[in-house]
Design goal:
single chain; mainly beta; Jelly Rolls; three-stranded antiparallel β-sheet; 1 helix; globular
């Protein structure tokens, strides 16, 4: 290999490393932000419960036609629809329909009832930002 070829290869490698983040050792992988909000889906300010922080991550699976029953959340939660369709009745705050790919910050301390109104199962990834001793969900 000639000196000229070695210099070309070094220059090409340096150009690729600077142009492609995947070559950089200190770079963070790309992040697709699904949602960033200071309020819930019905416009409430997000307020965290007091106490030692506790994160809960769950996947909720609902059969076609299944309902959650009226309930409320004591801890803020983000939800991402992995599959299916969910219709949620927020009472006076209205009704909303969520489909695969939708992401939301759920109502906090407000009664609501969800129903799988799709043709198959509904799967929802849920992340609660709660506190030890504070229930994430309370049935009404």
């Amino acid at each position: 290999m000639t000196l000229q070829t070695m210099i070309f290869n070094l220059a090409l490698g340096a150009a690729m490393a600077s142009a492609c983040p995947s070559f950089a050792q200190d770079s963070y992988p790309p992040v697709d932000v699904l949602l960033q909000s200071e309020t819930t889906i019905i416009g409430q300010e997000i307020v965290y419960p007091e106490g030692p922080a506790q994160i809960t991550v769950a996947i909720v699976t609902m059969e076609q036609g299944q309902v959650t029953g009226w309930h409320r959340h004591e801890a803020p939660l983000a939800a991402h629809m992995l599959e299916g369709e969910l219709t949620v009745d927020y009472g006076e705050a209205g009704t909303r329909v969520y489909n695969e790919g939708d992401t939301l910050i759920e109502a906090l301390g407000s009664r609501h009832n969800g129903e799988n109104t799709g043709d198959g199962i509904a799967r929802i990834l849920v992340v609660f930002a709660g506190a030890v001793g504070t229930p994430n969900t309370v049935s009404e």
